[in-house]
Amino acid sequence: MAEPSARPGSGHSPSGPVRGPQGNPYGTPPTSYPQTGNGYAPIGAPVPPTPPPQGKNVVRSSLLMGAGSLVSRVTGFGRTVVISAAIGAGLLGNSYTTAQYFPQMIYELVLGGVFASIIMPLFVKAHKNDPDGGDAFAQRLLTLATLVLGAAAILVTLCAPLISVLMANPAQRDLVTQFSYYMLPALLLYGLFAILSGVLNSREHFGAPMWVPIINNLVVITVGAVFYTVFTRDAVPDANGDIFNSADQVTNGMIVLLGAGTTAGVVIQVVCLAPALRRAGFHWRLRFDFRSLPLRTIGHLAAWTLLFVAANQIAVMAVIKVANLATDTDSDVFVPGVTVYNNAYLMMMMAHGIVAVSVITALMPRMTRAADDRRWPELADHLSSGIRLASFLLVPIAAAFVALHEPIALMIFQWGAYEPEQAVATGQVLLMAGLVLLPFSISQLQIYAFYAQTDTRTVAMFNLPVIAFRIGGYLLAFAFLPAQWVVVGLFASNGVSYLVSLLLSMSLLRKRIGLLDMKKTANGLIRTTSAAVIAGAAAYGGWVLWPELPVDGAMAKLGQFASSIVLGLVLLGVYFAACLVFRVTETASLQATVRAKLRR
Fold first, then answer.
1. pLDDT tens across 70-86, in order?
2. Where would you find the membrane-spanning parts of this chain (predicted)?
């Protein structure tokens, strides 16, 4: 649930840091460590030329990564649906979801943001410049990461009861602690997967890192299916008609299957990289000569990233804690907690990932080149066009989340132990996610305009008040809203913080690179939003007039699918028709693209 990790640049010249008097980057005698594998070409050693990328290979790699990303997102969401159906959104579901965040959060703090932003470029540099193709550099870094992450995994696993106190409510603490004993060791595995993926990507082997996580998703889907077959299908409800909503209904076998099964998926994910590493010609052996690593450079570049990541993880801990505390009530009404929050958040992030991340990926090389040459009007133009394109595609999705939140949530989540009232509550949070989606995506696009300038300090600094706003909103939601509306309030707090981030980043960018062509951008947003309001009103009207659906059974599920699909198509049709009437520029571009494809 954290924000996407920062992607800072080095702030150094392309040739690397200033070399010391002995011809190495750290000023120490050259005999103190081997002269290969430090990420920089040794003095006097010829560097083999890097062949230019072949067009067909680039296209093939892009298609492979795009397909892998899409399938990974779909199976990842399927994993969430299956697990939710197996364990529900009560005590068991909330405890499992809370424990699952621990290794991912700590991984982000220890290595995640630093790796994605800094270490990956060093892998590429080492592979390009070192006579051994970067093998020694990667072996040293893998050895160091294994020691650091292994020690961190042991330490946090021993501290599982303390972590549970920080993030769970009293009724959950024992379950969260037991799950954590199985899940926290995965911290080491997440780190190894990230670094091994970096080794492969630096050697232009992109397929395995994109496709292997699908195997992890399939493993956890299998675990959820087995859990449902063994435990959920024949579970006896309690006096309130709920299953898995009290500690007495949860057995050790359930905890072992869910906890160990989830970690097993990460183990298999790492192991499945081995064939690809062999094909890439990389063989890992332990190396302890860590002085050859540019640790000072990594530390210098990582400082602001760690500040940004740490602040985000504090916000994640806060939202999980508040969501769990909201469920600590004796109310007979279902109170949504961290599972409902997480499911709605994942739907928002899936839309953002498919649309906005694709736009960001396409724009980053152009924005970076413009920033490197200090062509500020061109950078502003790329940013403006990216915001308009992403908004054009995201606005109808947001409208669907708002207008059709109930049928969509019932269709996707009302399975097995995920009861109708839990799905309806998820839909209410999904409505808020629809309102939050666009500010979040635009704020992320603007943040990447700073990354194009290799500026992480500014991003870290202006995000500190943003995160303070967010956590303050969490506390206000918990203090003043009824328990069943707290999770909706948490999403509203996210939305306010994203809006603050958007305004702050816009102001800072305008001072740095000049006018952002916001008049044209605002004009496009007004037109697309107006079209989405009309389309959403039409779809919502259709839902109001839709025949009453049964609460449960095959006919209920059929009606949920029919209403969501039919009304969703109505929404899209009305949206594009309204965009044509309002002369939205992106609609004409889309028409031209479709016509060109059809002529082929």
1. 788 889 889 999 999 99
2. 70-93, 105-124, 144-167, 179-199, 211-231, 251-277, 298-323, 343-364, 385-405, 425-451, 458-479, 485-504, 525-546, 558-582
